[in-house]
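Researcher: Next entry in the queue.
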Amino acid sequence: MTSQVSSPAEQADEAVVGEQRKATGAKDVRRLDRVIIRFAGDSGDGMQLTGDRFTSETASFGNDLSTLPNFPAEIRAPAGTLPGVSSFQLHFADHDILTPGDAPNVLVAMNPAALKANIGDLPRGAEVIVNTDEFTQRAMKKVGYETSPLEDGSLDGYHLHTVPLTTLTVEALKEFDLSRKEAERSKNMFALGLLSWMYHRPTEGTERFLKSKFAKKPDIAAANIAAFRAGWNFGETTEDFAVSYEVAPAATAFPPGVYRNISGNLALSYGLVAASRQADLPLYLGSYPITPASDILHELSKHKNFGVRTFQAEDEIAGIGAALGAAFGGSLAVTTTSGPGVALKSETIGLAVSLELPLLIVDIQRGGPSTGLPTKTEQADLLQAMYGRNGEAPVPVVAPRTPADCFDAALEAARIALTYRTPVFLLSDGYLANGSEPWRIPDVEELPDLRVQFAQGPNHTMDDGSEVFWPYKRDPQTLARPWAIPGTPGLEHRIGGIEKQDGTGNISYDPANHDFMVRTRQAKIDGIDVPDIAVDDPHGAKTLVLGWGSTYGPITAAVRRLRRAGESVAQAHLRHLNPFPRNLGSVLERYDKVVIPEMNLGQLATLIRAKYLVDAHSYTQVNGMPFKAEQLAAALKEAIDG
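Model: Structure for this entry, 642 residues:
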């Protein structure tokens, strides 16, 4: 763990306080500037709930934070096995942070599988808290331990705390009318109470949450609260935990405002609702459940009061088909999916390109190909979003960079779709979707005005003077066609996938017309107004690190490390991947080296090389996990020196 540096006066004060604590029997309290905790256990042990509650209390306390939930890929792997390990990592600090951290300072392991799956990530000297009740011979052999790691010396390099969590929980709940199995389920709350004591986390919010969650089962609520309090009291009274830790609020990390903890999928959902309100259009989601995008469907289904309609379709094709129909009918239409679903939706995305209707395709990327790694993260759908359709079917691509940024990215994707009458890809990923961080709740006055004008009547005068409606007559600035609501008198027009005649929208097989329409649709996307890319280069560096999407946090953390070590390196991050910012070419020309870290095999690097003829250096990873800052810093240092 990293401690803050104290002044001599502060050290003297702390020494006096320490002597006073010894005299009264109180435990020592140490100040830290940041901590990384990982909760790990079987997928039925409630580690995600435990981590989420610890995160919520940490957010309410005012720390900056970043989380990394890590789910098993198996729907229900056999209990106690390595494939069934579920973990939740939280990095919180008294200053601005960007990632969930490279290596945990504290591991809470609920069983041998959790210990074996995670111990390799810990630095020497880390705290390891294990539930000794689960370290039976059978459980240890199941994961390959021939001898007990708690006794064979293999953990001598760590601060090991052996706690019979299950036994203590059952004992704490003996007054409740619960079976042993029911009582054991609360051991995650005992662990949460212990860690809450250890790091001085607030407790009131968790107790309110438990009362609300189990409102229909007050006995279960009371039992969980009792287990939570018992864990806190255990930390306070046991001699095994002689020290607790304080991490002060990150008072200077945030601009003034009202904040809440938010995950990427929740921020994206709120962004879609905000976009529909700012556009004064009903929001329609046509979707089919798929990991890790399903939470958006779950969340939006709760907001009918904001004019949101959600349709859980029978498959991916039906979901986007319904969404495109809603776009034709005048709604802000959205479909959500992950990589395999994008493949199924590709024909209808091409139809949306031909119809030139606003439609948001939200792709929460995951490991592939095919079903791949459903619960792990990747950035490997960029080329699919760019080119994964038959014919020339250009689609704008927008990518958020942090969980909270998913809100703004949703608004930006909606702006482009509504202004230019086009489907738009929004590329998030599993790391952003499930991770969380503090988010400043914006004032409504800060949000963009997204209102659009529907076609109201004739827009073209024929040679004979008669006035008619042409569905493909374009705005000279945006090249967008009119958005005509079906059923409006005089605005009847033909739609479909066959090529349209310029202006009239009639079916056309004319070669010259097809050439014109293809080039016009491309020109519309090329002409989309996107902000210039900003470059962070305080020292006139010769090396630029260019990223996109969720690599922002690890890249920025790595760049900060290098600059503290005296290295000169510049950084830029892309939100708009199609079209690229207009100044991107001139930015790239300023640097001798361009390094592009990606969680794929170099897809952005391929696009950059092709478009700008820049010899971009690709640094890639496809292991289902986000980059570590230390790993990136080492790779960037090698590129700078090479």
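Model: Residues 338 and 363 are 5 Å apart (CA to CA).
Researcher: Noted, moving on.
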